[in-house]
Amino acid sequence: MRRRVSMLGSGALMALVVTFALGAGADGLLAQDDGAAAAASHEVERDAVGVTVDEQAEKAYEEAERARLREDTEHVAQVTTAPTPEPEPEQAPAEQAVAAAAGGAAPSAPRGGSSSGAAVSGGGAQTAAAPAQQAAPAAPACPSSIGGGAGGAPGGSTGSGIGRTTNDDLAGFAAAYNAIRVANCLEPVPYGNFRYSSCMEDRLVWMAEDPDPNPVSTWGHAGTISNSYSQSVPDRGCDGNLAGGSGNTGATMAQKWWDSSAHRASLYKPGSSVAGVCITFAMTHGGLPNDGYSFTRASARWGGC
User: Which CATH number fits domain 167-304: 3.40.33, 3.40.1000, 3.40.50, 3.30.160?
Assistant: First the structure.
């Protein structure tokens, strides 16, 4: 009998042994096998899912507890899961510069609003933002031209034939003098304050009457001329700023004095007030022995009226 059984397959032998040897007790053994199979199946499920049934229940409990704590105002502060911080806005270059000057970081704009425009130092003190640059004040306007006419001059000639100052000489000089001042942002002199000077004319005539054929033989300021003529005929009249040459007018004399820095400082006096100022002028035409009428000598001075 046993020899025949041994010839059976291993599966059939196990079934017969269980059936005949154990009888009713086989149900318990089969139940244990079913439990082991279930356990094995559960382990397979654990490996596949990665979470056991107990762990799932524990996780569900923790989530429910967290939800309860969030609703419980007395324990909200005890929730360990902190909210994700919102990213701080980037500082603008201007805010970075203000922060560097204040010794601290520039404040970020409050959520839902804009920056206050003030920098906060490391100690918490507020530093005022740099004030807006004010526009430079407008430069004062230059004086305008004025109207009017200069005083008169005698004209004519001396007994020696030297031409004297004319109205046109004085008027041309006054007009050019004021035009130059206004063009250079200087206040013009009232035309009534341009005066003919007989004293300066006397000295110009003294120069023109020198018999030396060289027209500059007796040319210069008082005290600088030393020749036979000056020794025999003492100079007379009043000194002033001098200009001369052929083909000149009162207007060209005014320009010559402006073009000379020393004469400009003496006769135009930039920066000085013209209140109560009079400009005296004289001009001669010709000279001895053979200076033609077109050869002129002129003198002018700045002084009080």
Answer: 3.40.33
